[in-house]
Amino acid sequence: MAEDRFTTERDGFGRLLADREVWRQAASIPAAGELTARWLEGRSQYQPGTFASSFDDETRPIALELAQLNRNGLFTKESQPGVLAGGHAQRAYVTGFCTVESAAALLELSGRTGLVTVAHAPGEASQASIPVTLRDGEVVTVLGSSEGPVGDDQLRDWAEEANDGLALVLAESWYVEIFDPVWGRNGVLWSAVLGALTDEEPANRAPGG
Questions:
Q1: Rounded distance, CA 44 to CA 51, Å?
Q2: How confident is the model over 49-59, as pLDDT tens digits?
C-alpha cells in the first residue's frame, strides 16, 4: 500500500513525487536534459524549479523543439516563443546550462547569424539588460542579467529540488542566453540553436578567449 500511495502522491505544487525520485540520480547536464525532455513531452510531472506539474500554455508550441535542445547538450532553464499581438510583443529566446564547448558553438552561431548569444562563465554575473518582452510599451522581461548564474541560494535550491551533485555541476557550467532580435519571429531560433549544438567542433579555449 505504501508503494502504491507513493506512485500517485504529489507535493504541494501538484508535482508527482515518483517522478521527483528520478532527479535524485541526475548528476550531469545530459541526465538533466533527458529528464527535462521527458517532461516537455508530457512523460513526467516533475521539473526542478517549475512549481507546477506541467509547463504553461505558452511553452506548448515550442515544447518539442526544447526537448531536442535538452537532448543535445543544453539543459534549458527558461524560454518563450516570439509573439506579436496587440500591445504584447516577445522575442523568442532560450536560456540554459551547457559545457564550454557548447557555449563556444552558440557564441559562434551569434557571430555568423542575426541571433544573439550572451554567455556567462561559471560564477560570472552580468548587469546587462536586453528587453525580450513588452506589454503596452513597458519592458517586462529582460535577458543578460544572469543569476550568478548559480549562487549560494540557487545551489541550495537545486540541491533540494534535484540533488547535490547536479547543483555542483551547474555551478561549474556555462550559462547561455540566446534570442532572436526580431520581435515575434519563431521560425529561426530553435533550428539554429539545435544545429549549433549538433555540429559543434571540440573547443580548446573558453568562449570569448
A1: 13
A2: 998 999 999 99
Q: Which amino acid is at 122?
A: P
Cα 9 to Cα 170: distance, rounded to the nearest angstrom: 28
Transcribe 133-163 into DSSP letters.
Answer: EEETTEEEEEES---TTT-HHHHHHHHHHT-
- C-alpha cell of 108? 559562434
- Taking the C-alpha atoms of residue 66 and residue 70, their distance in angstroms, rounded to an integer, is 6
**pLDDT tens-digit series, residues 90-102:** 999 999 999 999 9
The residue count of the chain comes to 209
Report the alpha-carbon distance of residue 195 to residue 63 in Å, rounded. 17
Residue 51 CA to residue 53 CA, distance in Å, equals 7
Where do we find the cell 568562449?
207
Question: Could you tell me which residues are beta bridge partners of residue 16?
Answer: 10
d(CA 23, CA 12) in angstroms, rounded, equals: 18
Tell me: pLDDT of 205 over 60.
no
pTM: 0.86
What distance lies between CA 135 and its chain's CA centroid? 23
Q: What are the backbone dihedrals phi and psi of residue 101, each rounded to the nearest 5 degrees, phi first?
A: -65, -45
Terminal CA-CA length for the chain: 57
Give the three cell numbers for residue 22: 528520478
